[in-house]
Design brief:
Layout: E1 2-4, H1 18-27, E2 32-35, H2 42-53, E3 57-61, H3 68-72, E4 73-78, E5 81-86, H4 88-95, E6 98-102, H5 109-116, E7 124-127, E8 132-135, E9 141-146, H6 159-162, E10 166-169, H7 175-186, H8 190-204, H9 217-228, H10 233-242, H11 249-262
Keywords: ATP-binding, Nucleotide-binding
Pfam family, one: AAA_5
Family: Belongs to the CbbQ/NirQ/NorQ/GpvN family.
């Protein structure tokens, strides 16, 4: 869990009307859903918007063990007594923070049930263990993200859940914008940034490789950082871009040969 009030504006390159849509979502107290592949800037965008709105941000990275108890809270033993400890969702509801459920579809089904009453006109949180209902603070906002293409048919959000949100799709930026992002994030030269983006787009179009995930902007940023710190370019691309994509030896060799030709 990450809870923070960001003092320095995170770098984010606007690619459409997403900032304007988020502001209207916040103003009208409508939950916001970000859809798209991993590493396309969803989390950075939420950090940027929390800073723009001057709101505390609480981030939960969801996984298959994330339960409603993890979000709402639990009783703990402290000394000779049992006390209640608020979870991050309860804290956000009370304090008026933005809570960001990253990859919400990965969480257990009871998490979706727990947030339903916060995603409609009621804006309340039920705490069964305390027998309490908490009205959300006026500044509270629920934001979630998920990857619609990941393990399709297995970990999807139900239409009844998706329709409770305003939704915006994120994808990899246009090459020129992605190169600008790399230059800003890593301080590498523009020519190297363009080559990294060209490699990414080449691999993204190699659908015949059957990669579970493809090259994200995040991987390119990692490559750019270690290139800027002095690692040879080809080695940097191998370890930061190619190796994280697959463990298949033949695919690894094919991707390395491809990258060697391009940088």
């Amino acid at each position: 869990m990450l809870a923070d009030t960001l003092t320095i504006a995170p770098y984010y390159h606007t690619v459409g009307k997403e900032v304007e849509v988020f502001e209207h979502s916040y103003k009208n107290k409508i939950p916001f859903l970000l859809k798209g592949p991993t590493g396309t800037g969803k989390s950075r965008f939420v950090e940027y918007m929390a800073h723009q709105l001057d709101r505390k941000l609480i981030t939960i990275s969801c996984h298959e063990e994330t339960s409603s108890t993890d979000l709402i809270g639990r009783f703990i033993i402290k000394g000779a007594e049992t006390i209640w400890l608020d979870g991050p969702l309860t804290t956000a509801v009370k304090e008026g923070a933005i809570i960001y459920l990253d990859e919400v579809a990965e969480a257990r089904p009871d998490v979706i049930v727990a947030i339903h009453s916060l995603t409609d006109h009621r804006r309340v949180l039920f705490i069964d263990k305390l027998g309490e209902t908490i009205k959300a603070h006026d500044d509270f906002m629920l934001v979630a993200s998920f990857n619609p293409g990941y393990q399709r048919g297995f970990k999807e959000l139900k239409p009844s859940t998706r329709q409770r949100f305003i939704a915006v799709s994120f994808d990899y930026p246009e090459p020129k914008i992605e190169a600008e992002i790399l230059v800003n994030e890593t301080n590498i030269d523009h020519d190297t940034a363009k080559k990294l983006v060209a490699i990414a787009n080449k691999i993204r179009n190699l659908t015949e490789l059957g990669l579970t995930e493809t090259v994200s902007t995040r991987l390119l940023v990692d490559a750019g950082k270690i290139i800027h710190s002095g690692l040879p370019k080809r080695l940097a691309v191998h370890v930061a871009v190619v190796e994280p994509l697959t463990d298949d030896l033949q695919t690894l060799e094919a991707l390395k040969d491809l990258c060697n030709l391009m940088i």
